[in-house]
Design goal:
By secondary structure, the chain is an alpha/beta fold. Helix content is 32%, strand content 15%. The protein has 4 domains: 52 residues, N-terminal domain of TfIIb, CATH 2.20.25; 217 residues, Rossmann fold (3-Layer(aba) Sandwich), CATH 3.40.50.740; 170 residues, Dimethylsulfoxide Reductase, domain 2 (3-Layer(aba) Sandwich), CATH 3.40.228.10; 128 residues, Beta Barrel (Barwin-like endoglucanases). The strands form 8 sheets. A 6-stranded mixed β-sheet has the order 21-23-22-25-20-24. Strands 7-6-15-16 form a 4-stranded parallel β-sheet, with helices on both faces. The longest helix is centred in the N-terminal third of the chain and has 19 residues.
């Protein structure tokens, strides 16, 4: 006699993919609480946005290595020995030890790092907890990628715009290379624009996929973007290709800008960038004369020695050419009227001005810290209706380099408790050896992760648009696992903040956030898949811009008040030498791996089994390097190993290095699963001379290095990867 099997239960729903920073809406299916399939959206307009990272979600969610219960360190920190404990015990111990740190060192001794985009959203509960506690030291990977761009754009016109690629007639890509499986929606938008006849300009040291199809390709020296854009401005101003009416009525600082631009004649710019002067001029004219042109956000300019100037130059070009808040230009979308923002839930007014001023980076590199946000408050409230606006999660945050110094050395004060959520911190920021020291110097490290990453091994226990997109729960979480909502709510209640964390479910949080629309989440889910208000253009004619002058600030009054140059400039990076002849540019992601924590997912890893250094054939021949062989890349600060990939499309004298490599299959064989073998974060440091002045951004694009043939790393396992 056999017992009849219970019928299986199948659930389907819309979900938002968080494996990269785009947040595509897909369809998910779960059987008996287990994700079994990810499909394209049922809308043809959105269906093309699916990529192989998204379809790999079941392999990630169901992976044999997924952490399903809390783990407590059983050996020395980094020894990778653990004991299973209950969720309740984990939270009790975290709260107790965090309380001891706060009592001994003050609330600012807690720092939190998140992945920003890739934990989808904490609904501001992380910052809410920190602000109630009194810690301003929240950091995120967005400090190096889009979030810092948002903060810098606000200095010029009070918002981070989104490009209307669908209606643009010229698209400029500064080192950005969207492809079918990388920033897929942006790739599709660009392809659609090309089919309409739009021209494209690609600025990139390599002949990327986008460069191959571009109308113009400017093969620039890495790290000289700001000089190139100053050259564009020189052409546009000299030839009067700017929108004179908009500049007259809506800009301030035009005379000062012109004087600065005159310091960059095309001959000088050509010498700095390695791009022919006439090609620079052609590109500038093409952009300025287009009826609708966009410069989409790029991760490249985010990570240079003069990052603030490079980002400001993009915002200035948008404004003076009349491409701001117009069809086919850059849209200032504003806030969704039916939704409480994360900044509202973060309770920034609860942390005192005195504690805000303790934020690491507040005095030294203030552009995306509380210091600048406080200066912008009245203008943001006047134009956008909110005094605190946290665009792309990149505003009101601490400077990561300053945080890790405080963690490692107690300078300017000790940070002794660190919580990392969905963020493989050890590999996510520059100066990896300092981060390693910082993590080892903590009284408490909590890693909230789905896999045992190198950062988790060191632990004690484990938009800029106004779109609302439906994401439904279809799978069941492991009983002892916790969402970010559960983690922060339970920790807050243990730390005495229960009245501010009264929600008993995430759906109650969503109901609260949707109150301005008059709908509950259940009503939203029943009626709406995606809610995107129709755009309104040239809103500044009624409200002005959210800047101190109410206009576009070509010379930034806020930068001037902070003691910095109010105008953009080019800052030369350390040049190659005979000993270090290459310009190295790192921080570039491979298609299968937007996040660093998923090298153990076989369906993705097989697409990129090992890290590669990309070099030009002439450079490879000179250095005796052969395709597929292992080589060691050395800089003045560190060295890593990877395979050589010889590429005709690389600019001579350059090496491209992938981001965030480690080897989960070597766990137990190599220290921290090979976290120091191939990680680009080993190659750079973050001393003041190698940081952007205004933001404290490290220089990842164009630092000196050399390549030497070597043997493969010792101790590499042959273990077959799951999934």
């Amino acid at each position: 006699m056999t017992l009849a099997q219970a019928p299986s239960t199948t659930r389907t729903g819309y979900t938002v993919c968080t494996i990269c920073d785009i947040g595509c809406q897909l369809r998910a299916t779960a059987v008996d609480g287990r994700v079994t399939r990810i499909q394209a959206h049922d809308s043809p307009a959105v269906a093309r946005n699916i990529c192989y990272k998204g379809t790999a979600a079941p392999k990630i969610h169901n992976h044999a290595d997924r952490l399903r219960v809390p783990l407590k360190r059983a050996g020395e920190r980094g020894e990778d020995r653990w004991e299973e404990i209950s969720y309740e015990q984990a939270m009790d111990e975290i709260a107790e030890r965090l309380g001891e740190v706060v009592a001994n060192h003050g609330p600012e001794a807690l720092a939190v790092s998140t992945s920003g985009w890739n934990t989808q959203t904490t609904h501001g509960l992380d910052r809410r907890f920190m602000n109630l506690l009194g810690s301003p030291n929240w950091i995120s990977g967005v400090s190096l990628c889009a979030g810092n761009t948002a903060a810098v754009n606000r200095l010029t016109y009070g918002w981070m715009p989104f490009p209307d690629i669908g209606n643009a007639n010229c698209v400029v890509l500064l080192g950005h290379n969207p492809r079918k499986h990388s920033w897929t929606p942006i790739f599709n938008m660009i392809e659609g624009a090309r089919k309409r006849g739009a021209e494209t300009i690609v600025v990139d040291p390599r002949v990327s996929e986008q460069a191959e199809r571009a109308t113009l390709h400017l093969q620039i020296r890495a790290g000289t973007d700001a000089a190139l854009l100053l050259g564009w401005l020189k052409v546009i101003l000299d030839e009067e290709l700017y929108d004179a009416d908009f500049v007259r009525d809506w800009c301030v600082g035009f005379g000062e800008l012109r004087a600065r631009v005159d310091e960059y004649p095309l001959e000088r710019v050509a010498e700095i960038t390695g791009v022919d002067a006439e090609l620079i001029a052609r590109a500038a004219r093409m952009y300025a004369k287009a009826d609708g042109a966009v410069i989409p956000w790029t991760p490249i300019t985010d990570q240079q020695l003069d990052s603030t100037s490079g980002i400001r130059l993009q915002s200035i070009l948008r404004a003076i050419t009349g491409n701001l808040d117009v069809v086919g230009g850059e849209l200032l979308s504003g806030l969704h009227p039916g939704w409480r923002t994360e900044a509202e839930l973060q309770l920034h007014d609860e942390i005192s001005p005195r504690q805000r001023a303790k934020q690491l980076g507040y005095q030294t590199h203030p552009v995306y810290t509380y210091r600048t946000a406080e200066m912008l408050q009245p203008y943001l409230e006047k134009v956008w209706g909110q005094p605190w606006v946290d665009q792309v999660m990149g505003c009101q945050m601490a400077n990561p380099s300053e945080v890790f110094r405080a963690m490692a050395d107690g300078d300017p004060y000790p940070v002794k408790a660190f919580i990392t959520l969905g963020n493989n911190t050890l590999l996510s920021y520059p100066n990896q050896h300092q981060i390693h020291r910082a993590l080892r110097n903590q009284d408490l490290v909590v890693a909230h992760e789905i896999f045992m990453t190198p950062t988790a091994m060191l632990a004690d226990s484990w938009a800029w648009s106004n779109r609302l997109t439906l994401s439904e729960a279809v799978a069941d979480a492991p009983e002892q696992a916790s969402s970010t909502f559960r983690f922060w709510t339970d920790l807050a209640r243990r730390m005495g903040f229960a009245e501010h964390f009264a929600w008993d479910s995430l759906e109650e949080v969503l109901d609260y956030r949707l109150e301005p629309s008059g709908r509950s989440f259940a009503e939203f889910r029943a009626s709406t898949v995606m809610d995107l208000p129709p755009p309104k253009f040239r809103k500044y004619r009624k409200t002005g811009f959210a800047t101190p002058s109410g206009k576009v600030e070509l010379a930034s009054s806020i930068l001037a008040d902070l003691g910095f140059d109010p105008l953009p400039y080019h800052r030369p990076a350390p040049a190659p030498t005979a000993a270090f002849p290459y310009r190295v540019f790192s921080g570039v992601r491979e298609d299968p791996f937007f996040q660093t924590g998923q090298r153990n997912v076989g369906v993705l890893r097989r697409r990129s089994p090992a890290p590669r250094f990309f070099v030009h054939p002439d450079d490879a021949e000179r250095d005796g390097l052969f395709d597929g062989d292992w080589a060691r890349l050395e800089t003045e600060h560190g060295q890593v190993r990877a395979r050589i990939s010889i590429q005709d499309g690389m600019r001579r004298g350059h090496v491209r290095v992938p981001h965030g490599w480690w080897y989960p299959e070597t766990r137990g064989e190599l220290d921290l699963a090979g976290a120091f073998v191939s990680s680009d974060a080993v190659l750079t440091v973050d001393t003041d001379d190698l940081l952007d002045h205004e933001q404290g951004i490290p220089h990842f694009k164009g630092y000196p290095g050399r390549l030497v043939a070597c043997e493969p790393p010792a101790g590499m396992s042959k273990t077959t990867l799951e999934g």
